[in-house]
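Continuing the batch. This is chain 6 of the set; chains 1 through 5 are on the previous pages. Same settings as before, nothing changed between runs. Recording input and output for traceability.
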Amino acid sequence: MIASHAKLRDELLALVAQSLCTRPLATFARESRHDGESLKDAVERYEVDYAWHVLGSERLRDETIRLLEGKLTHVASDAQKASVTEVLKAAAAGQAADALMSFDSDVPEQVATLLYIRRKADAGAAA
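Output for chain 6:
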């Protein structure tokens, strides 16, 4: 059971990591300058922060759990909530110190969908 949990976490983490849309701080600053706005204004407008902070935030975790519960049509179990938290924290830990991303990302939808698909596959295998 522990091995399958670790395998699931590693699979989810790999899929999430492959799909993240991050940009280095220098690139984002250059784009802001090109657009004629300060970095501060651009960060506020696009709700951008360090990728490790966005991925590790309660906001992203809560949104992911909300989306998962919508797919499940019931409240997520403590184990499912823990899986969401674990995958997002692991993804956050893997980010470069200067990588930025927006809170307005599809990460919550991706993680919720992956967990839902995995749950259905596990239920089908158990039947």
